[in-house]
């Protein structure tokens, strides 16, 4: 279902992937610095989760300014929270590359506001860009260290923007419940020599869903 989400004097293009049965949890997903919400990895993940009962909302927000992308992401979270069509108990925020930085930034901002009400259930970072290629001295970890909700990182072990030991070091300092799933030999774009895109996506999608389920299921028992 295509929707246009008001954002200032503009609109953000977004698409709902709706499960057959009434969903209780949602998943908001956005793209990296290039591309848009129709990036194949996002389409694949949204379809996978919706088929398993999780409402997915993916959106496009162009622009290389993280503050601007964060503002847009926050607008989408509010939109879904106030939606009359879907009454959700909570949502997971997710992004690919720069989109995951925006998602982390939103969670940090919302957690610092007084009306923090557990609507945000967790964060999924796909190819989190911890540093610029070959520039490992400056880490983009400030938001991660403030987050308290559960976090899943899915990263390639050969990602030129996320050195394995550096991410493990940051994660060890995080106070939130966290997990890293390494895609063996994958680069920043999650490409792996000798594996098809579908094969890699199947691994990522299954990881994300099983992680989400760990946090949703205990609440329904």
From TrEMBL:
Q: Which InterPro entries match?
A: AB_hydrolase_fold, KANL3/Tex30_Abhydrolase, NSL3/Tex30
Give start and end of each KANL3/Tex30 alpha/beta hydrolase-like domain.
27-212
> Origin, by domain of life?
Eukaryota
Question: Gene3D superfamilies this protein is in?
Answer: alpha/beta hydrolase (3.40.50.1820)
Pfam families named in the record: Abhydrolase_11
Stretches that traverse the bilayer = none
Which residues constitute the signal peptide according to the record? none
What is the name of this protein?
TEX30 protein
